[in-house]
Amino acid sequence: MRLLVIYPYIPYPVDRGTYQRTYHLLRALARDHEVDLLALSEAGERLEQYETFAQFCKRVEFVPFHHPAWPRLFPDRLLHPLPTTVRHWWLPHINEAIHRFAEGARYDAVHVCDIVMAQYFMNGLGHLPLAVDRSRVDLQFQIEQHRHTGQGLRDRLLTHENLFKLARFEKRVARRASVEVVCGPDDETFIRAHISRDLPVFVLANGVDLDYFTPAATAEPRSAEPAVLFCGAMDYTPNVDALRWFFGGMHEELLRRVPGLRVYIVGNSPLPEVAAYAQRPGVVVTGGVPDVRPYYRRAWLQIVPLRIGGGTRLKIPESMAMGTPVVSTTIGAQGLGLRHQEEILLADQPEDFVACTARALGDAALRARLETTGAQTVRERLSWPMLGRQLSEFYVRHFPPQPAH
Questions:
Q1: Which of the four, 81, 99, 213, 266, has the lowest number of CB atoms within 10 Å?
Q2: How far is CA 166 from CA 21, 142, 219, in A?
Q3: What is each CA distance from 113 to 2, 8, 243, in whole angstroms?
Q4: Sign of dihedral through CA atoms 76, 81, 85, 86?
Q5: Could you report the per-residue pLDDT of 313-362, keeping only the tens digit for each?
Q6: Do residues 321 and 297 make contact, with C-beta atoms less than 8 angstroms apart?
Q7: pLDDT-based confidence at 17, cuts 50/70/90?
Q8: Counting Cβ atoms within 10 Å, is residue 232 exposed (0-12), middle (13-18) or buried (19+)?
Q9: How far is CA 93 from the centre of its chain?
Q10: Contact assessment for residue 94 and residue 120, using Cβ atoms and an 8 Å cutoff
Q11: CATH number for the 2-207+384-398 domain, one of 3.40.50.2000, 1.10.3210.10, 3.40.50.300, 2.40.160.20?
Q12: What was the pLDDT predicted at 147?
């Protein structure tokens, strides 16, 4: 097959969760097929990574851009049919670059990351079959974000306006797309209930690079005192909300049950709210680190108290591959098919989350069992080469070869 891949960013280095998925799936597709890549570069960032992708893609083009200003409420926003969260990614020179890049080439399919890139195929290039890889289902994500994020009256009204337009746009994309690739069965269930009953959907979980995330990669010992880790981008709303929930109702009770507990918050760009948690006893906020693996090995557990869903969490398979057991909400682990008390501990209420975490911290045999079964699961089901092969084989079955023009 010959594939055109369109990304809204340059996913290397793989220092954000979505970059892991897009980079590794791209490499896997390029192993089996001829792939051309066009990726956007916000403010010219990462342009030096051209050779990284030229090693395995046939053609590569990076398109620098700056996001347009957010539109004024009236008339620019209210009278425009597109939701602002999608429109924020529309620029004429990007549209021209995509058309120019695709001109004269015979592609069997176009693989785009997320609906912000799908919009460039809504009114043009209609002859190309479109696959939309969803790092999250935008409508589902924004509904859940609204549910857990406090807003004033004006912001609530604007959120509802954007959700109304986003629901219509999601349905337009579903009619245009040949398939949407989602991270878990929860995403498919949401699409079936709220977007389209007929759209072909392929569920492909997020995975882990087992060559990189391995206990042998670091000599870091386990902490001598109980320690838990929360890992992820610290300017990402679901992560910020998870920490707000944890420190708002769980941390003090957990300290009472596990005196001396240390909490490591590891990830890029911590917002002031996140940075302030370092003032609490035993809490360390690192910001970005050159290598997260020593922190995985230092921690006795990773906690994933996420309340906002959509997509799956790369931090979980990474932690399991590093031999660090996980306590998570059901939403935090959705899409991975992990069994409670077998590969992971799951809890959705604050008192249950505290109880599971305290129990695991106090039971070395339980942690050892979770470590063994978790590592076995990621080896058997969640390696990127295995997942990429599944996507590649699905595309071969789903997209018939395009006739020569």
A1: 81
A2: 24, 9, 48
A3: 17, 7, 28
A4: negative
A5: 799 999 999 999 999 999 999 889 999 999 999 999 999 999 999 999 99
A6: no
A7: confident
A8: buried
A9: 27
A10: yes
A11: 3.40.50.2000
A12: 85
165-198 pLDDT per residue, tens: 999 999 999 999 999 999 999 999 999 999 999 9
Distance CA 287, CA 303 (A): 17
Distance CA 374, CA 341 (A): 11
Residues 99-119 have pLDDT tens digits of 999 998 999 999 999 999 999
Q: What is the pTM of this model?
A: 0.91
Tell me how far apart the alpha carbons of residues 116 and 85 are, in angstroms, rounded to a whole number: 8
- Between helices 138-148 and 185-194, what is the axis angle to 10°? 90
Chain centroid offset of residue 308 CA? 12
Structure tokens at 99: 């058309």
In the three-class reduction of DSSP (H, G, I as helix; E, B as strand; rest coil), residue 307 is classed as coil
CB 37 within 8 A of CB 58: no
Strands (E), 187-312: 201-203, 227-231, 262-266, 283-287, 301-304
C-alpha distances in Å from residue 330, one per residue of 214, 273, 313, 326: 25, 25, 11, 12
Q: Which bin fits 104, alpha (ψ -120 to 50), beta or left (φ > 0)?
A: left
2-207+384-398 and 215-381 have identical folds: yes
Give the bridge partners for 180, in sequence order. Answer: 132, 201
The closest alpha carbon to 250, from 263, 238, 237, 239, belongs to 263
Nearest-5° Cα angle at 319, 183 to 217: 125
- The DSSP secondary-structure symbol of 77 reads I
Number of alpha helices (DSSP H) and beta strands (DSSP E) in the chain: 16, 13
CATH class, domain 215-381, is alpha beta
Confidence label for 26 from pLDDT (cuts 50, 70 and 90) = very high
Using alpha carbons only, what angle is made at residue 25 by residues 66 and 16, rounded to the nearest 5 degrees? 50
Buried/exposed 107-129: b ≥16 CB within 10 Å, e otherwise: bbbbbbbbbbbbbbbbeebeebb
- Which amino acid is present at 148? H
Delimit the domains of the chain by residue range.
2-207+384-398, 215-381
